[in-house]
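Hey L., structure's done. Input below.
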Amino acid sequence: MCAAHPLDRPVWTTLTTRQAHLARGDARAWRLEADYGLFAAAADGSDESLAALAALVPAGGALATVGVAEPGPPIGLAAEPRLIWQMVCDRLTPAPDGPPAFEIVDLTDADAGQMLALATLTQPGPFFARTHRLGAFVGVKDAAGRLLAMAGERMNPPGFTEVSGVCTEPGQRGRGLAGALMRVVAERIAARGETAFLHSYAHNAQAIALYESLGFALRTELTMTVLTRP
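Output:
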């Protein structure tokens, strides 16, 4: 299967290039190492590739494919398709005057437990024990060191880096934390000469409005298909 653009099949592109060291499987189908995420992709729609993809789906677990035109689900697996928007940021909107009214800090492995807990509470998307190691993360903490909000990086197709893991503790929303954190992540991506992109559920109008205010624009609609073994 040939994609016209590296973001048309971001999982396949990522797992066969810059994050190949985290891929498990073979040339017919790859999945991200389980502690990092549930994303997977088949090389094409052949029976051999789909069978290899099916073999990667854990018993009682799930994998997810993402793409413009991913192959149909392997025989014997249940499939739940979800429409998502893929948005890119060619240029950030101008930053507000003056620094934010809160400190933004780099997050490390020492913050892993709090990061997983915050993601589990707020459900920004799939987040696992080592998802935070897919790229750099930044956050905002309170005076006691409790993590209030975070944003970071996930997939890395050549020339692009995904902004992901954006979440804020429910009681802290409305302070502009998510937007400020996303801006830092996207500025760092741009400084490396790459383009920031992200994915959002198509129905999440509030999140999409935030992303558009930062300069992200719809590139295309994709389908994320969650595969499970009945």
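The radius of gyration is 18 Å. The mean pLDDT is 95.

-- N.
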